[in-house]
Amino acid sequence: MIERLIDDWLSNANERSYQYPFAHALAGQGYEVVHVTRHCGMELGKDILAKDRHGFACAFQLKDVRGKKISLRQWTADLAAQIVSLVETAIVHPALPAKGRSHRSIVVINGELEEEVIRWIDDFNRGRPSRGGRPSLEVITKGTMITWMKELNTNFWPKPISEIKPVIELWLDDGGGQLNKPVLAAALEQVLELERAASSVTTRGIVSAIHATAITTSFAIASFTQKKNHFAEFEAWMLAYAHCCAFVEKSKSPYENATQALSVIEKMIWNSVALLVEEARDAQDLCLGDPFTDSQLHRVRATAVVGVAALATLWASSASSDETQLVEQSRVVVERYFRDVWMWGEGACPQLLALYLYQRCFSADVTSDVVLGQLVEGFCRVAGDNARLRQFGTVYQTFEDVFFPEQDTNEEHERATNTNFRSRCVKAFWHLLVKENWKQRAKAIWPDLSKLVLEEFTPSGGWRAYQWRAEKGTLRTVLQQRRQQWSSLSLEACTIDSTAVPKAFIKNPALYLAFLIAYPHRWTTDGVKWLVATASAAEQRN
Amino acid sequence: MLPDFSRARKRFRDAYQRRLLNSKFVASDPFSESPRFVLQEGDRFVLQREDGSESKISFREISARIVFKKNELAKLTQAEVIKRVDEAAIEMARQEMKHSVETITQTLENTKQTVDARGEVFSPKHVFELFEKVWIEFEDGKPRMPTMMGPPQLQKRYLEVLDEIKSTPELMKRLNEILEKKKRDWDDRETDRRLVE
Prior knowledge:
The complex is a heterodimer.
Chain A: H1 2-12, H2 15-28, E1 32-36, E2 48-51, E3 57-63, E4 69-70, H3 72-88, E5 104-109, E6 112-113, H4 115-126, E7 137-140, H5 142-153, H6 161-171, H7 181-192, H8 203-220, H9 222-226, H10 230-250, H11 259-282, H12 294-316, H13 324-337, H14 349-362, H15 367-383, H16 386-389, H17 399-403, H18 410-417, E8 422-423, H19 426-435, H20 439-449, E9 453-459, E10 473-479, E11 484-485, H21 486-494, H22 509-518, H23 525-541
Parallel strand pairs in A: 3-5, 4-6, 5-7, 8-9
Antiparallel strand pairs in A: 1-2, 2-3, 9-10
Chain B: H1 6-27, E1 44-48, E2 54-57, H2 78-110, H3 124-133, E3 137-139, E4 142-144, H4 152-167, H5 169-191, E5 195-196
Antiparallel strand pairs in B: 1-2, 3-4
């Protein structure tokens, strides 16, 4: 049944839908994937660039034939001209060998070839020199792709029907709304068997697991990809990346064994970010054309989009490729919508943090610090107002959870009857404010802030930090001292315990911020302080 | 399978769930006023107090069974189902309150925050001693008087003692002096919320 599902999905996928799982299948065959197109305005005619096992550059062009056999007429009409370009035009990428500039050219179709097309290709190749011991033009069809994916999935595709249920549930989703992250997380946990994973897995096993996870994710979010729901894609790929990291760390395997495989998923994360930024920049506004809801949801949408755009600037400044265009697009989006940003709950704090980092980088005045003070005061106002409190989400709640809750759940009942405000995020913002030496402002805020109950969650075991919900871990609730000394507070604010940052993100602060946006409940004071300090150091170096 | 009506079943179950939660909430009074939250993940809980001391809190299961016999299902009335749900809610509230009272009693005994009547009849002096030991919050200048919990005979006696205090000027004066001191303590605490050099 599983093979039929993959077959069916692949037959109905367009190029965007199947390019990522194909990239993983390639990686599973020993290719090193260096570029996956965003299918944006700048189409270069080469969808995927990679190096084969011998270091030879390879260019792949993907076509969508919806599972059918491509006829000669269709081949010559749709592909022939592009094929010449694919074969003859040199590919230029910093990660690919420049010497000789020769490369393998491969057309990928999610279908099969008619006899006449096979003949056409044969004639084409006869007139041209071979490349890397291969014909000038190679073709990969659906059958080969399915074989490669099945090879990867042998050990990792969930087998009992009960285990594939979350995958199917997502696959059947409309794809236009918010990603159901708990369901995807459940699917990923099952694919990777996280709770049962062996403590030692071979390098090949690690790599296979990562590629299989990526293919499963691609399949599960196919409808979101179809709808070009880039925010959902971003969150989905971040979840996939995080769960793969959990698998690597639980297996006590060094990250070096998994870097290449993880880098393909990371490309997908940043591609989704870039596509969302491009879409927001090109849109006239953030409305979807629904008069009944656009004005109500505009600020929520702005918060999500501005957060991602600000994140994009942080990533682009450290990216190995030239992302100047992305920085420019992101700045347009942030400057256009940052006034509409809204802290609807603690779940929005990572987006606000991204905006703060952006303003530190691009604002010549003290705007960012003013915003910090306003954020902290905002928390104090919420805590002191029961009516507001009931409409302010925790780090575990999405916007829809807060304003359109499922009725009659324990959470909903607690929310409706509780007057207890506990904050996981305010301490980080407070420490950032203190660190910037806003002493008088801090003194004015402190009496109200001291009344807040703080909390922090620490998962047990490093790998659980990547889980959607950690079965084991400690929740610490802190009742603050009423009187504090400025000097002690300053020292505490400047002290950072970097062990709070999950290992996978120590060399990749932008990805850590992306992780927090997708997993707001993994917010920790020391993690946020580390992120700001690291971003500041990078900003000074630039 | 037999015909099912899953939407209707969900509605009914949701309504009974709501009933259970509400009944438990009411039956837990006054503990239902205590701060509560849902633990979304993890298996350990630590409370760090203002003075820096910590307590590791262990979890205790609170549960109740609702039993239905197979042969009564077809004839069960809604009133009977509600009755059993309410009974379960009350049982859960009872367990929760018992645990809360045991925990509070243990903590208070450890910190010697208790009043020993030494076998005497409960009288105004015991009330004054209680109020002197307990912390009272103030809101808009007015005290948020603590809720008293106790066995029925003590509750009756407590109300009689309160009446006696209210009708005796000297006793009322003493009570007011205690409340004024409590207000000063509260003011001191609130003005101590400072960031100092």
